Predict the 3D structure of the following.
Amino acid sequence: MNHISELKFHEGSKEELLPGYAMDFPYIASRAELDRYAGRFVPWHWHKAVELFYMESGTLEYSTPKGKMVFSAGMGGFVNSNVLHMTRPLSANDKNVQLLHIFDPCFVAGNQGSRIERKYILPIAASQLEIIAFCPDVPAHARILESVKEAFGFSEDGMGYEMKVRESMSRIWMMVYESFHSCINTDIKQDKNDERLKTMMIYVHEHYADKITVSELAAAGYISERECFRIFRDFLHLSPLEYINSYRLQAACHMLANGQESVTEIGRACGLGSGSYFGKLFREYAKCTPTDYRKKWQDNTKKCQE
């Protein structure tokens, strides 16, 4: 099982880079230690793979364009393919650990265009569904949660590991389908605004170190400035400039936690200007100075390595 404490992206994209994820076996099991993420949250991102998870400890808030959902210890959930989402622990003190199965829908669908894909996979993966919660006090959900937890017990070195994992994910998918297919909107029309937003997010990811205007961002999405403002507000509940600065500050957190560049160099590298202006924005964002943030996270890293 992969142990992860930071989010990485594919070059030139906001799609999450999944360590250990391979084309010939598009599945990974991960243990996300959310307390160790820079800023204690996972920023807006997406991935083609679906996400099945179980909350081992803590309380986690998922945000998607359609709203928020809270998951406490013992609960679990399903995040659909290509859904924009971010997560944030709700407690500053509790340990927050999330166990995840992440896999491409083709992992259980088989050949593209197969009967299994048409009947059982696409009605969920290509629907407007964003996220589902599994509650242990609902019998059907409890069975799903038990299967999700059980599948983390397979040894990667054991005989038939790949077959066991695929069988388990297929069985869980079928349980999800049986429990939720009647309430899923099966309209599979692609939301153009969702794709436009992702295109603009990619532009920010590629150009955050430079000056970015709303006009340039709107042009990247082939829309008007007014429409650009509307899409960011409707989907991410932020203005375009708020999102740009948020991403820059996330990049600064990563550089402070993992590098030795001066605070002034990091401010400039992240498109946040002079040391004093960067310091002011960073204190508002992280509730501490860049120097204090660096010391805290680098000290934590040393303790975890000892």
